Amino acid sequence: MSLELSSISVAFGGFKALDDVTISLNKAEIVGLIGPNGAGKTTCINIITGFQDPTSGTVLLDGQNINTKAPFDIRRRGLARTFQAGRLFTGLDVLDNLAVTGVGLGHSRHRSEEEALRLLTWMGAEHLAELPAAGLPYTDERRVGIVRALMFAPDFLLLDEPAAGMSETEADDLAQIIKRIAEELACGVLLIEHNVGLVLSLSKHVYVLDAGKIIEEGDKAAILGSTAVREAYLGAEHKPENMGDA
Ligand code: ADP
Ligand code: MG
């Protein structure tokens, strides 16, 4: 199976958030998407998942255009995402939060809870099941967000800055989980991250987005050796005062 953003452009008024962007990934493969703040990374996920319509271009799932599908329909087709900010129901415990997703997919409550517990256990997070979602430490909330996305049994998982706010150890744990999602669940992963080291170590192929354009793509060596990346992305990271000029 393959997922492709094909020549996608998005304009908000006169502002081009994405300009002729093409990104593709296959099942069981991790592909990275990096770039400075405001580069258009989250917009890519919004386009793939139907939250945002492109001005031009297509989203292809196995070569079939899914542009016109509603978000719920796209999830049914095997695409799942996480959000930058947690969106758990704060009044429910973790298991119920996950079961709600299963019930929404049409499964019985019993089966949904079983599946939620199976996935939590798979991730080594079964101890979270009965904790209230409201009080979860940030990193656990992120892990539950990933489990919730996995409730859709996705063919492709779109992760929007999953390591944000994590310590190095926590990010390493997360890296193992992402690897297992690709290897054990045969799920294709589009990984958006500020943690460039994490992306480069995990991804088969990395795209670099800057001001709505793909300025580089390739494996770890290609990205590390790229002058364009150093100037546009790493340079900006080291000189945040220059970011406003973009
Ligand atoms: P990233 O995730 O790389 O930080 P985003 O995709 O969130 O970047 O945003 C890319 C650019 O598009 C930003 O300048 C942002 O302000 C703008 N943008 C995103 N969504 C909207 C929207 N719904 N309306 C107007 N501008 C938007
Ligand atoms: Mg973003």
What would your notes on this structure say?
Helix 3 crosses helix 4. The strands form two sheets. Strands 6-7-8-3-9-10 form a six-stranded mixed beta sheet, sandwiched between helices. The chain has nine helices and ten strands. It has helices at residues 41-48, 71-76, 94-104, 109-122, 138-150, 168-184, 196-202, 220-224, 227-238; strands at 2-12, 15-26, 30-34, 56-61, 64-65, 79-81, 156-160, 188-192, 205-210, 213-218. It is of the alpha/beta class and 246 residues long. A hairpin with a 2-residue loop joins strand 9 (205-210) and strand 10. Magnesium ion (MG) binds at residues 41-42, 84.
Give the N-terminus to C-terminus distance in angstroms. 36 Å
Order of helices and strands: EEEHEEHEHHHEHEHEEHH
Ligand types: adenosine-5'-diphosphate, magnesium ion
- The rounded Rg comes to 18 Å
Backbone shape: globular
Provide tags for this entry.
246 residues, alpha/beta, Rossmann fold, six-stranded mixed sheet, four-stranded antiparallel sheet, 9 helices, 10 strands, 38% helix, 25% strand, binds adenosine-5'-diphosphate, binds magnesium ion
Q: What is shown here, in short?
A:
The chain has 246 residues and is of the alpha/beta class. The protein contains nine helices and ten strands.
Structural topology:
Blueprint: E1 2-12, E2 15-26, E3 30-34, H1 41-48, E4 56-61, E5 64-65, H2 71-76, E6 79-81, H3 94-104, H4 109-122, H5 138-150, E7 156-160, H6 168-184, E8 188-192, H7 196-202, E9 205-210, E10 213-218, H8 220-224, H9 227-238
Parallel strand pairs: 3-8, 3-9, 6-7, 7-8
Antiparallel strand pairs: 1-2, 1-4, 4-5, 9-10
Helix pairs in contact: 3-4
Bound molecules: adenosine-5'-diphosphate and magnesium ion.
Adenosine-5'-diphosphate (ADP) is lined by residues 12, 17, 35, 37-43.
